[in-house]
Specification:
Layout lengths: L1 H49 L2 H22 L5 H30 L5 E14 L2 E6 L8 E4 L8 E18 L2 E19 L2 H8 L1 H61 L1 H5 L1 H28 L11 E4 H16 L4 E6 L6 E4 L1 H17 L5 E10 L2 E8 L6 H4 L23 H11 L3 E7 L3 E9 L2
Parallel strand pairs: 7-9
Antiparallel strand pairs: 1-2, 1-3, 1-5, 4-5, 6-8, 9-10, 10-12, 11-12
Helix pairs in contact: 1-4, 1-5, 2-3, 5-7, 8-9, 9-11
Length: 464
């Protein structure tokens, strides 16, 4: 059963990981789609600005200016570097007008978020037949912005890539003659936009998806946790019931076997003829009958919860009450190796409690101290007042309790051991009943224990 639960937990965790991976993949895809849709939406909104006649006219100005400079270059009047210098000086002067108009139109369409735009130059190439002459890019360091604001291209989004083709004439001298030739011009540029806080905007649009996915994920985890916890709890309950049945069966076997022998003996004519033997056998029957009754009463009474226990509280003097419990316990045990160190407060303190039930709780702890003790058995019984609480500590030098078992020690039917194999007889109800009695007195019971060094039970009840 334990292996099946382990396999189930592993399979569930793997299934949860797979589900999480699929969900993460779908969210990632949705994010990419939302991002592209948002950028396209912004680009469509800006398209009206880019197609305005005012901006087209600015582009026509630098294009015409560039052609003139290239004609001078082809006529050997200026160099490539001078062409580019003049080109970027011209675009800089035009960019002031471009920025003013762009800002005005951007405010007019009112997107609700800031957008930066820039147009970069990719290349300028002169083509003559099968020959080409690259004017830009060149090794000399030239910036590439034509229009717009400067920003890191990696932080922006490409919205357009365009080419401009034209044919141009130029005049040059060849073999002492003036010759008119033509060339083809190819200019390529690319446009980018940078949207401030675009990730936040996309995430906000995906908020419902994130929230729904999180709720679904938490629901699946909660359902998985609840199912596994219930399965483990049911297994634990089944094990406890099996353990209890085995223990109660073991406890009942001895008196029943004794009763069987005694009843057979009563039928024996020799026993019948001997009054002493007959009475002795009857006494055995009475004792075993009483033992059976006590076992049944223990199961019935000690199974009560603190809500079911009816207390009859009365005022008692602490030192008198606890000293009497210690003396009665020592007298009942007649244990030669038992030593109880009495550290009860000498000053008289009046406390309210149910004398019978509280004594039962204390005796259960003392019984366990003797059952699981080393030789010789030393028990320390100490009382004190702390923060308006009456504290009672019972310490022993027994075998101790492991950390693993300590958290279950006050559970109903729980006994330290493997299955129905225990070194000491019992039904696993004593400490459960003790804890319920203390709770019924509005108190708490805790323990500290270390293997092979002993255990200390601490009881705290409020002092009125």
């Amino acid at each position: 059963m334990k292996n099946k639960i382990t396999i189930l937990i592993i399979a569930s965790v793997l299934g949860l990981i797979a589900l999480s991976s699929i969900q993460a993949y779908l969210i990632s895809n949705t994010y990419e789609l939302k991002k592209k849709a948002f950028i396209k939406e912004t680009d469509d909104a800006l398209e009206g600005i880019h197609n305005q006649n005012e901006l087209d006219s600015l582009s026509n100005v630098w294009k015409e200016d560039l052609r003139n400079h290239l004609n001078d270059y082809k006529s050997n009047r200026i160099t490539k570097a001078e062409v580019l210098n003049r080109f970027f000086i011209k675009t800089d002067s035009l960019n002031t007008m471009h920025a003013t108009y762009y800002k005005k139109e951007l405010e007019h369409i009112n997107l609700g978020y800031d957008v930066k735009f820039k147009q970069d130059l990719i290349s300028i190439i002169i083509i003559e037949g099968s020959k080409s002459d690259t004017i830009y890019p060149v090794r000399t360091e030239f910036r590439n912005k034509i229009f717009g604001q400067e920003f890191n291209t990696k932080e922006g989004h490409q919205i357009n890539k365009s080419s401009w083709y034209t044919e141009s004439e130029y005049i040059h001298q060849e073999d002492g003659e003036i010759v008119k030739d033509t060339y083809d011009l190819e200019v390529k540029n690319i446009s980018y936009i940078q949207i401030k806080d675009w990730k936040r905007i996309v995430y906000r649009r995906m908020a419902a998806l994130f929230f729904g996915s999180l709720l679904l994920f938490l629901f699946v985890i909660g359902l998985l946790y609840y199912s596994i916890k219930n399965l483990v709890t049911q297994k634990k309950i089944a094990d406890i019931k099996t353990d209890f049945i085995n223990n109660i069966t073991h406890e009942l076997k001895t008196p029943l076997a004794t009763l069987s022998i005694a009843t057979k003996s009563l039928k024996n004519e020799t026993i019948k003829a001997n009054p002493d033997a007959f009475n002795n056998t009857l006494n055995i029957v009475d004792r075993q009958n009483e033992r059976l009754q006590k076992l049944i009463d223990q199961v019935m009474t000690n199974s009560l919860s603190n809500e079911d226990i009816v207390l009859h509280k009365e005022q008692v003097l602490d030192n008198v009450y606890f000293n009497n419990i210690i003396e009665d316990f020592k007298l009942a045990k007649q244990h030669s190796g038992l030593t109880i160190k009495n550290e009860i407060l000498t000053s008289e303190i009046v406390i309210r409690l149910d004398k019978f039930h509280f004594a039962t709780a204390i005796l259960n702890i003392l019984e366990n101290a003797v059952k699981y003790s080393a030789e010789p058995t030393i028990i320390t019984f100490k009382t004190e007042i702390k923060n308006s609480n009456y504290c009672l500590k019972i310490s022993d030098n027994g075998i101790g309790i492991s950390q693993k078992n300590q958290k279950h020690l006050f559970d109903k039917f729980y006994r330290v051991g493997d299955g129905n194999v225990h070194d000491v007889k019992g039904l696993g109800l004593g400490l459960y009943y003790t804890s319920q009695i203390i709770k019924a007195h509005q108190g708490v019971i805790t323990l500290e224990s270390e293997l092979n060094k002993g255990t200390t039970f601490t009881i705290k009840i409020p002092v009125n």
